[in-house]
Amino acid sequence: SGALRWLAGPWHGPGSRCALAMSEIIDRLARCDTVLPQPSFPKFKLAHIGFTHHGDFSRNRDKTRDGHRYDSVGICNGVIRAGASCVRFPWDPCDLERMRSELSEFDGYIVRINPGQLSYPGVPPGAQKVFDDLMDHFTREGKPVWSSPAVQKTMGAKDALVKIKYLSCGLIDTKCYYDAVEFDIGFRTTAAFQPRVLKRNRGSAGEGVWLVWLVSTPYCAALGDRTLADDDVLELMEMCDNHVERHTVKEVVAFCVRGASSRDAGTWETTHPGGFFTVDGGGKQSVDGDDGNDDREDGVDDKNKPVSVDTDDVTRSASCADDVGAKNKLNADDTNSQTQSQQPACDQPSQQHPPHPRTVHVVDQRLLPRIVEGEVRLLLVRDELFQIIHKKPVAGGMSAVGTLIEQPSFYDPDCLEYASLTRKFIKDDLPRLKDALGLRTEPLPLLWTADFIPMDDDDIDDDSGQKEKNTRWVIGEFNCSCVGVSPFLAAANGGSLSDVTDADHQRGMKLCDLMGEQVVKALESRDFLPPALEL
To answer: H or E segment at 209?
Structure first.
């Protein structure tokens, strides 16, 4: 375990293990529901950056009663057990000078602020951009930020699927439309040729992701042989709930471009407003730094317990108790009292900011028939695979999100069942992933997932050198913005870590220990830097 590796040495020199009292060693091995004492001679100094909304505590569903994110203690302790210090640092958008000054003292940053939280009502206008700019500044100084603004925005955006289409985990014919005209022309052409999947950039738990079939006429023999007319009929299934609708092409285009209430859109059953090319992308929020990524069910361990989920899992699934706000008061952390001052209320109104010109888009991919077999999720800590999860849709459905799946299956990283997938992705694609995404100067996320869909591939040689029909694995989505450690989830919604069972605590710390080890490894090797920035 991580605790045993922590005890393994070194046993001499500054910060040696022998400098610790036996009582402290026992404390570190035992379950701990508070942040551990910081090392006397830490290898590195890390800041775990969080944010608590003071004014509307319904925004703090991911927080314990002391105002910290529910998995913050585990992550900090994983870093501490790896030999570095790690304090929980509450971001205060109303005291920027102090934020800049105090944060500059750290060697690296673990950002645990979910996209959109810094643009809630009551937060100063532009707070997300100010935060992102500071994180970018630290990145340019050669300090790792997990995950950096560039990584969150790039990997979290649906057009990441276009950028990786030349990797073995990508689909070469993936298309992306950045304006309504491109969409109207391109979609009418691709949907005439084969079944499609449309994905708007901002979405969560399958919302805004549609499977599309042409039902009024046969498909054409080759792409571009024909385009669909306004009165051609399409059948669509939305991935958030597997419900099916039928609409004309004219109605679908109007829904996607101008919204469900537009004149030509017809009547839709979905609760989604459409309007994918409007400023807010048809989503609930359009805010700086909101990549709209779905990190909702990010990992499960071999005991059928979730190992990581996103903050929004708390937001969508937990009931809103009347006393949650009263519980969520920010208390000082004994181990980092310097940074735990109360955040003052900010009376300035929040404002929405237009997205980057290319953040409004829709991805168009061919529908892979084997999606009915489900998705396989890889849960990674930087470049190390932690766990594999197979999520199969319920009978009659095609979505592998939320409650729409059967009991998931869980596999160790070295399992034989997915050896070809892990070998191909980890050895071949992962070393090329950052370059493909344009993120060469950025560190990989500390905790992230990649969801794969199987497809038949006739062009793969097996070990004997013969060509035969094999399974190829294609990425459908990355999750990296604020993937959570959900064995600690019972502590959310104004609870505490005392509400987490011993078994769940142990499972959560297994992942947190690996995160801590990877943080220290990255800082020791500086392997997160491109050659030009190596120090």
So the answer is: strand 209-214
For residue 69, give the 3-state DSSP assignment. Answer: strand
Q: Would you say the pTM of this structure is higher than 0.90?
A: no
Calculate mean pLDDT across residues 335-362: 44
The residues with which 110 forms a beta bridge, in sequence order, are 48, 146
* Cα four-point dihedral sign 129, 130, 136, 139: negative
Instruction: Express each pLDDT in 23-42 by its tens digit.
Output: 455 445 679 999 999 999 99
107 vs 83: CA distance, rounded Å: 14
Q: What residue type is assigned to position 267 of the chain?
A: T
| Residue from 509, 387, 359, 521 nearest 449 by CA | 387
**What's phi and psi for 368, nearest 5 deg?**
-85, 120
Exposure string of 213-247, with b = 16+ CB inside 10 Å and e = fewer, is bbeeeeebeeeeebbbeeebbbebbbbbbbeebeb
Structure tokens at 128: 């997300």
Report how far residue 47's alpha carbon sits from residue 33's, in angstroms, rounded to the nearest whole number: 19
CA atoms within 13 A on the CB side of 533: 17
- For helices 127-140 and 149-156, give the axis angle rounded to 10 degrees: 110
Q: In this structure, what is the dihedral angle of CA atoms 116, 118, 119, 120, given to the nearest 10 degrees?
A: 90
Order across the sheet with 384-391: list the strands: 409-411, 384-391, 375-381, 447-461, 467-479
Give the three-state DSSP class for 393: strand
**Max Cα separation, the chain?**
78
CA distances for 533 relative to 144, 440, 527, angstroms: 12, 11, 10
Give the mean pLDDT of 117-144. Answer: 94
Rounded to whole angstroms, the Cα distance separating 503 from 323 reads: 28
Residue 10 neighbours by CB distance under 10 Å: 11
Chain segment 361-396, per-residue pLDDT in tens: 999 999 999 988 889 999 999 999 999 999 887 776
Token representation of residue 226: 């024909």
CB atoms within 10 A of CB 344: 11
**Average pLDDT score over the chain:** 80
Confirm if 260 and 171 have CB atoms less than 8 A apart. no
Angle between helices 127-140 and 96-103 (to 10 degrees): 20
Element (H, E) at 316: helix 311-317
CA–CA separation, 203 and 232 (whole Å): 27
DSSP state of 531: G
Instruction: Check: CB of residue 156 under 8 Å from CB of residue 480.
Output: yes
